[in-house]
Every structure is written in C-alpha cells, then in structure tokens.
Design goal:
single chain, 112 residues, rod-shaped, mainly alpha
Length: 112
Amino acid sequence: MANAGKSAPQRNPADKAPSGVLRGFFWMLMVCAFLGELFLMAWCRVQNRQIGYEISAAWERHERLTKVQERLKVELAHLESPERIMRIAEQELGLVLPGPEQVVVVYENQGA
C-alpha cells in the first residue's frame, strides 16, 4: 500500500467541460433537426392538401365547362339548320327561292 499516503490525482473541472458542452450542443442540434423535420413534414402535408383542393376545383370547373360546351354545340346545330335559315329568310326577310328563269349562269372566259 505504497499509494495509501498519496491521494488520487485531482481532476480539473475545466477538463470535463468541453465534452459536456459538445454533448449539450449535439443534443441541441438533434432537437433542432427533429423540430425542423416536423415543421417540414407538416408544411408538405398542408401543401399536399391544398393542391388536392385545387385539383378538385379544377376538375369541377372542367366538368361544368364540358356541359356548357355540349349545350353550345346543340344550340349551334339548331342555329345552323337549313330549315331555320329558310324560315327566317322567307318570313322575316321576305326572300324566296329564284325560279329557273331568274337564274343566270356566268361562265369563265377561257380565251382571255
């Protein structure tokens, strides 16, 4: 027991501080990274939901415009019908089909 008279070497408190500071910094960094990831995940979910709403609204608008287009096609077909045009020409404008004696055929002069 030769070491009985000697005391254990004294540890300097400053020697332990850097590892404690580094450990604290590491945990703080990990907590910040975790919180950042949580916020990023929440933001992505909000954006995903918002884009889903925009897609739904665009799809409803597309369906509504398709129905309007179909109605307009039917209306155009009705307005372009020869029977309707003939009726308007005769009743409202007083026009009639020309008789065979009123038709003059003009031929292109091929000699000139």
